[in-house]
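User: Teach me something about this protein's shape.
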Amino acid sequence: MESENKKEKDIRSIALRKLAHRGRTKKELRDILLKEEFSLGEIEPLIEELESLGYLNDAGYAMSYLEFSEGKGWARARGIRELKKRGLSEADIELALLKLEEDKPFREGANSAFFDEEKSEEERALSVGIKMVKEDDLDERGRLPEKVKSRIARRLFSYGYNSDTIYSTLRKIEEKLNY
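Assistant: First, the predicted structure itself:
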């Protein structure tokens, strides 16, 4: 009896310690506890309890992560891809996307410097691309060499932007440089 109580305390303390550092998804917490060699029979009731208490909230995690990723300049597609890797369901991701759209009017009225993620995908891509261009990158005519364009394109691709957005961004950067 005492060893069961100790084991229950251990699983609870491990879970709460992991949640204290940063938000986690149910799948991430389940994987951590499985790695600690707890059974699914012990893990699932704890996850349900933590979810009912508000310590685990996959939809809330998804919304926060999407805001974070857009603030980093990533395309929404990359944020969604990363959430799927973390084990979030399509329903939780869709709920987060709907909530972000609902909150948009509030965030647009707030301090716009704080809410950079409200930029469109094209604006975020352009911002990332422009930050990468240095004066010494330009050739003698003030144009971007192919090597620099490739570097910008690779970064934008890694951020999850599609090829149309990447080519459009490169054109806009060149237009800005020619004025």
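Now, about its shape. DSSP finds nine helices and no strands in the chain. The radius of gyration is 22 Å. If you'd like, I can walk through any region in more detail.
User: That's plenty for now, thanks!
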